[in-house]
Structure formats: structure tokens, C-alpha cells
Design a protein that fits this description.
Layout (H helix, E strand, L loop, with lengths): L1 H8 L2 H10 L5 E2 H8 L3 H13 L3 E6 L2 E6 L4 H23 L10
Antiparallel strand pairs: 1-3, 2-3
Helix pairs in contact: 3-4
Amino acid sequence: MVAARFRCLGEPMRLKILRALQDGGEKSVTQLVAELGATQANVSKHLKTLVEAGILARRPQGTTVYYRIAAPEIFELCEVVCDTLAAQLSTQAERLGLRVLQRRRT
């Protein structure tokens, strides 16, 4: 199950979808397609994977389906990974004598 969760998060488009839904609201496929600049088929495929993994929930309303975050703790995991990567990059940059830009938190 752990490996499946990490595999699910290993796709950049899925991370973009999570980011688009991070504010806690719901969005339809149409809204996500417009925001992400991806095709409807591609976004739908990734939404299905995220729902099956239990990371997103879906709510049909008429002919529209709305998606929302079902596992908000996923952002804590992403934060840990990002912080670890930022520290690693900072260390590498220091070794090379480069100036490091701080990561923005949102």
C-alpha cells in the first residue's frame, strides 16, 4: 500500500492536480483542465488514479463531477519531501559556492 501511494505521487500531473485542489475547495474536471492546460482525457485519467488511491473524493452533481482532497495529510508528506530536497540542494550549492534561493511556502 505504501509503494502504491508513492507511485501515485510519482506523476507530475497528479501533483499539479493536488496543488490545484489544495485550497480545500472542490473543482470539476472542466475547471481543472482549464487551470492545468491539459487535455480532459489526461486529467480524467489522473483523477481516477487519485480517487482509487483514496487521495481524492468525487461528488457527482447532475452531469458534472466535483473533486476534492480526501486525504489532506498528503500535503504533510509532500512538505517533508520538499524540505528534504531543499536542504539537499542547499548543501550541494554551498559545496559549489553558489547562492541558494529560499523556497516559498504556500
